[in-house]
Amino acid sequence: MQKRTSAISALAFFLTLMFFFSMSTAISAAAVPSDFNKDGRSDLLIKNISTGSTSLWFMNADGTHSGDKILWSTVDATIVGTGDFNKDGICDFIRRSTTTGQTVLWFMKADGTRASYKVLFTDPKSIISATGDFNKDGICDFIKRNMLNGLTTLCFMKADGTIKSTKSLFTDMASSVVDSGDFNKDGICDLIRRYSPTGATVLWFMNADGTRKSAKTLFTDPKSTIVGTGDFNGDGICDLIKRKTSGETVLWFMNADGTMKSAKDLFTDSKSTVARTGDFNGDGIRDLIKLKISTGQAVLWFMNADGTLKSSKTLFTNVSYVLLPATVIPKLVKQSIYGTAGQSMGFTKYEYDAGGRQIKMSIYGATGLLTSYTTTKYNSSSKPVKVSYYNIYDQVTQYITTAYNEAGDAVKVSTYNGFAHLLLSQVITEYYDVGKPSKVTVYGATGIVSQYTTYKYNSSKKLVKVSIYNVDNKLTGYTTYAYNAEGLQSKVSEYGPTGLLLKYTTYEYNTQGKQEKVTEYGSTGVISVYKIYAYNSAGSLVKVSSYNFTDKLTGYVTNKYDAMGMIIKTSTYGPTGLLKLYTTMDYVY
């Protein structure tokens, strides 16, 4: 009996050990994001936008990588979400075609190869907003957003890649889910919703059925966004990184009630951002990757639990490398013009390289026949260096080359005849500061100055005067610029060479700093025409109405937007409301 009892005790002890081991493994797998080989460290997904090559980097604890795996070399494919979708402790990912919108879940093996796949949906107008375990079953779920109407839906997943059930979260063109994480330590993923017009950023604490338990406003600032989340102090509560457009980037340590416990300044650099977070050394503290946007330098910051930098490791310096999943950037692929009766008046198609840079623009007539096209080539800094214009016979009729200074400003623009390759003109630009020209000189084919323009600025580096001179160095006219107390342009005045006022334009703004009225006056101060601007709740321009000097409406233009704030239709009307023409814009996301 004693031996049997001992055997049972030993078995119980063994099962207990196995239970705790499996639990710790599950917790570890859940706690480490993007762990593709089950070693307890985050790995990286990187796309070379110049070639389309997408690679999985298996990371070592010192920030180096080894045993990398090339996933594919397809231009229009990207990764839009990651997570453990089959509960095997290995991170999987969601691949999306920007052309067709086909969205596919890849179940991964620990060696970086694909075990199997499941098509989730095919919709060019829908994207994945966030991923996470929203019902505490250990299987990653995802949030889907329709770009045309703003419908945002939580999809609960099964381990085989099929959808178990769905829950509509909200339908709002101006709101989006910007990140997710467990912010109250209940094992259920929560989400952060941002309202773009005001910048109101709200933490939604979630129930396991996809309903909202409660909400906490984090901040309201249109110039601030969330650029990363994760547990940065090892307390089991998700923290967040807030970034202002000024480049001020701050780590917020969070309490379980959604309030901020404390904050730690990370860096202030308008040219840098946090591109990714993860536990890259397996110490249970979230680390971050700081990206210098202008140079493409990505540096891994190993973090201490107090928000200070423990050490750093440069991963790469390459503007062609993008860390995935990346922010969705809509690309215009077709612009179509229609007449009053809906008849086609022509359309333009746009093509892009793997990095989202426009490389071809083709113009078609009303019958659908190609009339001309333009190609663009870029340098290593993604600056356009050559634009070539072609006729329907594929002959180059004209091309323009551009040279840049070290700051990335265009300093020389040369236009050539495409048939004879003869120089037609050159524009040389000198700069007062980065992005602020001081003098622009136009030369003819023989190198003789045809005209030049000078630019003057105030102490705040605001443009205050533009003067134009002819070939004889004689002033032909000038324009002055005035600003209001908020630094917004309030008046533009045009003068002749003798200083005689020709006309001026005033600008008025609403309380959000949006232009609401532009009035043009003659030299005597009498109104000639004016325009009124109207906006929707998202702050997007929806209507521009034009009036003459007698306050009579002469026509108006309306804009319609998708959920990303991109214009999808512009309509032009006469004074009676009769439609004159409209333009539609089609995008890939």
Automatic annotation (TrEMBL):
SUPFAM superfamilies: Integrin alpha N-terminal domain
Pfam families: FG-GAP_3 (PF13517)
Keyword match RNA-binding: no
Signal peptide location: 1-29
Keyword Transferase (UniProt): no
Record-linked Gene3D superfamilies: 3.90.930.1, Integrin alpha, N-terminal
Keywords assigned: Signal
Protein name per Swiss-Prot or TrEMBL: Repeat domain-containing protein
